[in-house]
Amino acid sequence: MKLTHSDSKSRPHIALLCVLSLVFCFGLQVMGPASLTSSAYAQDEEPAAEPAAEPAPAADPSASDAPEQKSFLIWMIEASGIFGAILLILSIIMMALIMTNVMQVKRDVFVPQDFVDEFQGKLDAKDYKGAYDLSKADDSLIARILAVGMSRLDRGYDAAMEGMQELGEEENMTYEHKLSYLALIASVAPMIGLMGTVYGMILSFQKIATATVAPKPSELADGISTALFTTLEGLAVAIPAMVAYSILRNRVARYMLEVGMISEGLMSRLPISKQPTPPAA
Questions:
Q1: I need a labelling partner for 198 at 20 to 30 A (CA). Which of 51, 72, 139, 208 fits?
Q2: Any residues with CB less than 8 A from the CB of 270 and at least 6 apart, and which?
């Protein structure tokens, strides 16, 4: 069988097409697994990058949850609040009252020994006018009591002693009135501290009641610290005030008793009848 001229021309084209088809199929076989492998590598690398970035945001909450460091004084001031400010004012007033009363409740203010000795010397010399002038010029309590008593000698001994007793009671009331402010502070300061205690516990229980989850100890510590600090501050003001009031009151009572005894002894040496004056007919 002989081939025609057309068949001989078409054979190279057919062979070229076969070669091209074989090359194309081989290229698909080679390029296909390579593209799949590169896409698989890309998928593997994307999730691998996410865990590497996770530790960074995890460190931020731990840093924000770290408690702020404060000094004890700043902590106490912030926890005490308005109750601490009130107790601070009371403590300043208490110290001023204590210093004032300590300066006034002294033996030299009530019974100065120099005045008593000089007054007795006037009585020994029977210089009653000089004794009266001496008592008028002195500012001590016993001098003022003696001056009142001697100014009433013309009314009798009983009238003189009554005037001295009235002045003594008036002075005693004046000292008691000054000391009563210390007693008031000693009574009010624990009540203010107790009010702060109740307020602090209310804050803590409010945290527990309004929290959707269990509150942290640091959140409850604010109310508890308010309760404890105000209680401590109230007692720190009340205890010194109570001690100072008791000591100063006892000193006033002792000095007033001494003034009464010495003044009566000195008045008894004056040449005046102790018998009551008979009523006029």
A1: 72
A2: 123, 128, 150, 153
